[in-house]
Each structure stands twice: as C-alpha cells, then as structure tokens.
Amino acid sequence: MQIEYDGTDYSGWQRQPGDVVTVQGEIERVLGRITQEPVSIDGAGRTDRGVHARGQVASFAVASEMPLGRMMHSANSLLPSTIRITSMRQVPESFHARFSATSREYRYVLLERPSAIDSRFAGCSHGKPDVVLMNRLAAMLVGTHDFAAFSKETPDQQGTLCTVTEARWYRSGRFHVFRIEANRFLRSMVRFLVAGMIEVGMGRLSEEEFSRMLVDGGRPASLVPADPAGLFLWKVRY
Amino acid sequence: MQIEYDGTDYSGWQRQPGDVVTVQGEIERVLGRITQEPVSIDGAGRTDRGVHARGQVASFAVASEMPLGRMMHSANSLLPSTIRITSMRQVPESFHARFSATSREYRYVLLERPSAIDSRFAGCSHGKPDVVLMNRLAAMLVGTHDFAAFSKETPDQQGTLCTVTEARWYRSGRFHVFRIEANRFLRSMVRFLVAGMIEVGMGRLSEEEFSRMLVDGGRPASLVPADPAGLFLWKVRY
C-alpha cells in the first residue's frame, strides 16, 4: 500500500511500545481491527518524529480475503484524517516494502521566514540563503559516499555508504525545495544534510568544512538536524 | 498591520466573550500585554471559524510610542505560531482597516480527494467536478448582484448587494483554486458560492437552479457552506 501522512503529531513511523502514537502503530491497529487478526506492516522508510510522507510504501501479509478496495476504504474511515492509504494492491509473497526498494526520494521544503500557514510543512532558514552555493554542495553529494557524519545512527552491518543519484535545490513558489534520491538513507541523514547546507548558505559554515564532513566523517558539534516539519518521504521506487 | 493565520484551531476572527479562542482575541491580548494598555483592533474581514488568512489587515490606536518594528517582533514572539503579523506601519488617524478597504480578495482551494497533508488547507469535492461549467457560473457572479441567497446574514443597513470584480477557477498543481474579488462580502458568502458551484460541477444541482438563486434570493435547503478549511482571506485593497 501507498500511504500519505502529516507527521506533525506522530512520534515517527516506527511502532513503539506503550501509548506512543506512531504512524505504523495506527495503521496496524486499524488493519488488525478490520481483518480481526494481528497485522504487522513493513514500511519502506522509517521516518523520524514529525517527518511527513507523500509516498510511503508498506507491505503486509494477512489471511483475510477481504477485497482490497473494501479494506482500503474501511481503513481510511477508521484512520485519523492525517493518515491516508492512497492505494493498495496485491504483490508476490517475495515483495518486501523495505528490502525490495531500489531507491527512495525525499524532499525538504524550506522557507526564508516563518509563516503561520506554511510552517507546518516547511523548515525555515530565517534569512535568504545562497542557493547557488547550496546547489554546489548538493552536487558533491551525488555518487557513493560515506555519510557517517550526517547521521546519528550507530552503523549496522550495512555500514554508512549510500549511493546518491540526484541531489539539487530548486525554487517552487515561496519555497526552496531540496530533492534527493538514493539507494538508502541513514537515520536523520536528509535533515543533517539540509542543516549543513543551510549553515553554509547562511555563511555560518564554510564550503570546506562541509566537504570535509563527507571525507573524514566528523561533524561540527553545533550541527543539529533541520526541522522535521520540512521533510517529506516523497517516493519509493522498486 | 498585515496578518497571516492558520484558522484551523480558532473560532473565527471576531473577539468573543469567555474562553472562546479567536484570532482577534489573541492579537488584542498580546498587544495589550506589550503596550500595557487595553487594545482593540478592527479587522478588514471577519472570517468564519476555521477560515485562514494570508493578508488580513487590522488597524488600532495606542498611546504607546514603542517603535513598530519592536512591537511587531514582540507580538510575534508571544503569539501562537499559527498567527503571524507580517508587517506593521503607521497610518493616518482616518484610516480604518474595514471601512477604508475598497476591495477584498478571497481564494478557495479545492481538492478532488481527501489528503492527509493538503486537507488542512483545502476543501474536497470527492470526485472530479466540471470546472468549465463552474467557470461559467463564476462568470455570472461578476457585476453587482443581490447575494442574499448566498449568506446566512440577516441583512444590515447596507443590504445584500455586492459588486464582484473578478471570479474564476484556475488550476494550481493538485488544486482547483477559486479567486473572487469584491467590494464587500456577506457572512459565509464565499463558502456558499463555492458549495453551489461544486454542486453544479458534480451534477447534483442544475446551472438554472444556481442562476435562479442570484435572481430570486432563495437557497435550496440542502446547500450548506463549503468546508472552511479551503478558504483564505487573501488580500485587502485600499
């Protein structure tokens, strides 16, 4: 299934014990109620607290033979309005939303000043950043690099190498948008990358300091991930 | 001052007694606290519960000689993040945000299906409306007409005549947007107009029934105002 959500009020994608409200937890609860069996879903991207999704993908297996159209309709009528299943289809048993994905695309939406309306779905640079310079940094990201400096993850068996196939900033109306596509992403990686580029674009970090992060894996202590409000898991490709 | 707000969680613009949270009430409370004097503000448009504003304008008089830049900055730091004063300047005493306005522009944002993300700032037609037909209705609205059928207001001394200078639907990405400009608007008028046009566009009301409303002032009992989530007070002209 494809899922869209406004992540503002959720503690991220991943199911958590107790009363912590997460997107995965909400969907599993609703699908369990509809099918009358315990349902466990696998999401393509484990988005952080407050991060949104336009095109999250999740897979699951159920014994229920309910038609998918009815299952999707029932789920959407029970889910909070900030989570929508936008499509559902049957896939081979070998399909796994996370492991079968060949690439993920994220977009980060940035405003130059806070807005009463747009800030729910955008980060803010509090000033005019040098986007030409930010695009030079973005171009550096393309290719296979060790992104350890741009993550708080403890490296798992897959390590910290990611292959970025596109990374660029473009203008869309009132917003600057950063589009990045890669085979995989480390935890908080897009938010660290965006924060680093904004720091350079606002003249608080040098281009050299940024490029050094990619090479030696060290991160300036002052660098914190950009506001999750601006980040969208946009599309997952298979 | 110019004001932007996400109206979702407010009981409209207008100050109300008791604990009812309104946009005017919040701004008056904050300005009163900053200037240490009771402040009463006049808004150009009294938006309904749940309606947003990009360009609301309000005027007020204070004895305080605090520089406007500082007043605006202080107010924004005390206001909830869903209300932003975007500019403030001194005006002649004769200026009144409501009575001096020559026109108001509203925009209504419409989606064809509900969205977890976009529905906070959009209404929904739950299907594909005939926008060409809706634009034919919109064209009818231009000029001076009696809009009594499109309001729940009891007519005041000004009556129910309004002069519409522009009314049209256009496409903007995923959205259909209705832009309307007039010298004045009756209570809930844009939402009734949009609801009527959607009903015709979805084939549930005829073009003739809609145009008859403009002529004889009667309203089909089934017609309720469109979802306030899609409506923005966009600009006030002086």
Q: What can you see in these coordinates?
A:
Chain A is an alpha+beta fold and 238 residues long. Chain A folds into two domains: 86 residues, 2-Layer Sandwich (Alpha-Beta Plaits), CATH 3.30.70; 135 residues, Pseudouridine synthase I, catalytic domain, C-terminal subdomain (Alpha-Beta Plaits, 2-Layer Sandwich), CATH 3.30.70. In chain A, strands 1, 2, 3, 4, 5, 6, 7, 8, 9 and 10 form a ten-stranded mixed beta sheet that branches. The two termini of chain A are 13 Å apart. The interface between A and B is medium-sized, with 16 and 16 residues. Chains A, B: Its EC number is 5.4.99.12. Chains A, B: Formation of pseudouridine at positions 38, 39 and 40 in the anticodon stem and loop of transfer RNAs. Chains A, B: It catalyses: uridine(38/39/40) in tRNA = pseudouridine(38/39/40) in tRNA. Chains A, B: It is an enzyme of class 5 (isomerase). Chains A, B: Belongs to the tRNA pseudouridine synthase TruA family.
Brief account:
With 238 residues, chain A is α+β, with helices and mostly antiparallel strands. Helix content of chain A is 24%, strand content 26%.
Helix/strand layout:
The structure is a homodimer of 238-residue chains.
Chain A: E1 2-5, H1 23-35, E2 42-43, E3 52-59, H2 68-78, E4 83-87, E5 103-111, E6 123-124, H3 131-141, E7 143-146, E8 161-172, E9 175-182, H4 189-201, H5 207-216, E10 231-237
Parallel strand pairs in A: 3-10, 5-6
Antiparallel strand pairs in A: 1-3, 1-4, 2-3, 5-9, 5-10, 7-8, 8-9
